[in-house]
Amino acid sequence: MSLVQTTPQRTVAPIHDVGIGLRSPHYADIERDKPRVPWFEVLIDNHLNKGGAARQHLHAIRQDYPITFHGVSMSIGSADPINRDYLTALKQAMDEFEPVHISDHLCWSSINGQYSHDLLPLPYIKKAVQHVVERIQQVQDMLQQQILIENVSSYLQYNMSAMDEWEFLAEIAERADCYILLDINNIYVSAFNQNFDPVRYLKAVPTERVREMHLAGYEDQGTHLLDTHSEAVHPPVWELYEQALRYVSAVPTLIEWDNDIPDFSVLQQEAHTASKIMRKVCRDAA
Q1: Is the pLDDT of residue 113 over 90?
Q2: Cα(199)–Cα(202) distance, rounded to whole angstroms?
Q3: What whole-number percentage of the chain has pLDDT above 70?
Q4: Number of other CB atoms surrounding residue 180 within 10 Å
Q5: In Å, how far are 19, 104, 106, 181 from 71, measured between CA atoms?
Q6: SS3 of 271, please?
């Protein structure tokens, strides 16, 4: 039985509205100006080493803002054993910084202890569902907290896949009793690359499981889209985000920008746009 069912979770104030991904070029601006940002998401793999400037900056910013942890190294779908050293360091960081929640990706990224720089998709089959469910339960038992799993962008499908990605994601979330981080940009990128209707994806997601959404920019390569997080959010993703809010409701949303990082004011403008869309959908619903 999962300890998540029986272990009380920490009481941390919830996040709301639109947050921004915390990146090192903006540390000084944030600490000096204390901008009006509801919350920050931390790429926690960059802060797991004790000491160092990154950890000091995170302590300073955490004093003024709620944060969430987002990771890329859990490799939840890998055939490798769960990396307990990584989870131990993650648990220590959780106890130290008290993030609102912890998320990682529904993918695999390691084999034989060697890590890829890519978040690789899984075959959408029942055997993979069971494998991932068991591993999420192990992670949640060790962290004593439910996690969020994020859909990744993809550029291929396995011939053996026997279900759609949204069915795969939904079944894993239900059976593992975890939550979903719904990346709207990733849905759009995958839909374009694999020629499916992204709205079908939104309609199939168990809305009660979605606790956060992500927005980012892709690169248009003509024949395909690359999920690079290096540009502003594109108009089709804004449109899909508005539709997502109508299906899922106004869950906290994050602006991600990881490459060719602009001035902090650009990210604030992106967050402002997302917040306006969220308020519009809420008004329409009311």
Answers
A1: no
A2: 5
A3: 96
A4: 26
A5: 17, 5, 11, 12
A6: helix
pLDDT average, residue stretch 81-100: 96
Three-state DSSP at 91 gives helix
Mean pLDDT computed over 130-156? 96
The one-letter amino acid at 246: R
- DSSP label at 64? T
Integer-rounded Cα Rg, in Å, for the chain is 18
Q: What is the pLDDT of residues 152-194, one digit of tens each?
A: 999 888 999 999 999 999 999 999 999 999 999 999 999 999 9
3-state secondary structure (DSSP) of residue 258:
coil
pLDDT, one tens digit per residue, over 269-282 is 999 999 999 999 99
Hey, what domains does the chain have and what are their CATH numbers? Answer: 3-285 (3.20.20.150)
Separation between Cα atoms, residue 5 and residue 19, nearest integer Å? 29
Give the dihedral sign, CA 219/207/70/118.
negative
CA–CA distance, 266 with 220 (Å, rounded to integer):
20
Which of 202, 164, 165 shows the shortest CA–CA distance to 182? Answer: 202
Q: Which residues contact 108 (CB under 8 A, 6 or more apart)?
A: 75, 76, 77, 78, 79, 120, 122
Distance CA 36, CA 213 (A): 20
